Hints:
alpha+beta; 4-stranded antiparallel sheet; 2 helices
Amino acid sequence: MKTKTWKVITNTGKQADLESGLEKREIRKPTHISAREFVHWLAPESHIDDRSLLSLFKL
């Protein structure tokens, strides 16, 4: 199975907007990390794959 790569369009510290081709996704900040960590981890114009995205939500 191929891992999808997402481009981070915006990140407000509470929510990030991601895009992969024509598909778009909004993700909310997990409660166990700070807004500052969330912005740092998903900086605008960065790229992240599905596996890395899932690891953000695991405790």
